[in-house]
Design brief:
Elements (H helix, E strand, L loop, with lengths): L1 H34 L4 E10 L7 E11 L5 E5 L2 E5 L4 E5 L4 E5 L11 H7 E8 L3 E8 L7 E9 L4 E8 L3 E2 L9 E2 L2 E10 L14 E3 L5 E3 L7 E4 L6
Parallel strand pairs: 6-16
Antiparallel strand pairs: 1-2, 1-13, 2-3, 3-4, 4-5, 5-6, 7-8, 8-9, 9-10, 10-13, 11-12, 14-15
């Protein structure tokens, strides 16, 4: 009996190792797809549910992802735009009427390293669904992640088609602080319309958003003229 238990634990352990290796291989190929020196674009939809098993969407918004052959990336999620070019990182919040300028983030397009995630999560399931893989990651005890579980669906072309995040922290959905409405929500992100068509070059040009005068004053584009400027560039200090 004791020998059988040892064999069972050994088989379970080697299966976990095999899963880890296979998941690592899949994620490495995903990273390669996103970091190829080719254009990439797709659409996203975000849906927030109050509870893990809720059917009713509480909040939803659309997203866009554009990447050029130089691995410069532009994204729009709801009313927030983000640009990471070779010269600058921009975050534009339209509700807050603010434009944040920072130094560019290296490897922004293809930074898909599994190691930090595996340090915080364990692989619960790795399932081949014929047209896509489904990977279920569960947060380890005392993990700093705000999620208890993450489910990722990856196409056989190594592109992410869906992500589901199960929150481990309570979110108050009430707009009246006197009547709290606490829940553990679920966020679903679905990506569609993947293609490698070229993207308009002006999207990745910082001059589309602002220019700098001879006196190094930032002049915002007309549509952003009344926005607050937050310049966090190290090179400007």
């Amino acid at each position: 009996m004791f020998c059988k238990k040892i064999i069972y634990v050994w088989v379970l352990f080697t299966c976990c190792l095999a899963h880890t290796q296979t998941v690592n291989e899949v994620f490495q190929k995903v990273a390669k797809q996103y970091s190829l020196a080719q254009p990439l674009q797709y659409k996203s939809s975000y849906a927030l549910y109050k509870d893990f098993d809720s059917k009713k969407i509480e909040e939803s918004y659309k997203g866009t992802y554009y990447k050029n052959a130089g691995n410069e990336v532009y994204t729009k999620v709801g009313e927030t735009e983000i640009l990471n070019s070779k010269t600058v990182y921009l975050k534009i919040s339209h509700p807050e009427k603010a434009l944040e300028i920072s130094d560019p983030v290296p490897n922004y397009a293809g930074d898909f390293d599994m190691k930090p995630l595996l340090a915080l999560c364990k692989i619960e399931k790795f399932v081949d669904r014929k047209t896509y893989w489904e990977i279920t990651l569960v947060a380890k005890p005392y993990s700093s992640l705000p999620y208890s579980k993450i489910i990722v669906q990856i196409t056989k072309g190594f592109l992410i088609q869906k992500q589901t995040f199960y929150y481990s922290t309570v979110v108050n959905f009430s707009k009246d602080y006197r009547s709290p409405d606490p829940h553990y929500p679920r966020l679903e992100i679905i990506n569609t319309n993947y293609n490698r068509n070229p993207v308009n070059a002006s999207i990745f040009n910082s001059k589309t958003y602002f220019t700098t005068s001879a006196k190094k004053e930032i002049i915002l584009a007309e549509r952003l003229k009344k926005y607050e400027i937050i310049d966090q560039r190290v090179s400007n200090k």
